[in-house]
Structure prediction request, 80 residues.
Amino acid sequence: MYGKRLRELRISLGYTQRQLADRLGISAESVSMYELGKRRPQKEIQKRINHLFCVTDQYFSQETEKDRVEELMMEIKRRI
Prediction:
């Protein structure tokens, strides 16, 4: 869920992974790893992300109704 949320925020501002990485002072590869769910940012980087997007840590961990619907649809498709 973290990676999906980060990607949505990045795209909503019209940033490429490279542009976001430059704003955060990290590599584009790190942004990619975060979005793919293969890595989580360190606390200092997370603070920068939160500040840039005006969100809290909870934003990345709270499940929304849309998330639940998407998960259910994926499960239904697997069963068909």
Notes: The chain is about 75% helix and 0% strand. The mean pLDDT is 89.
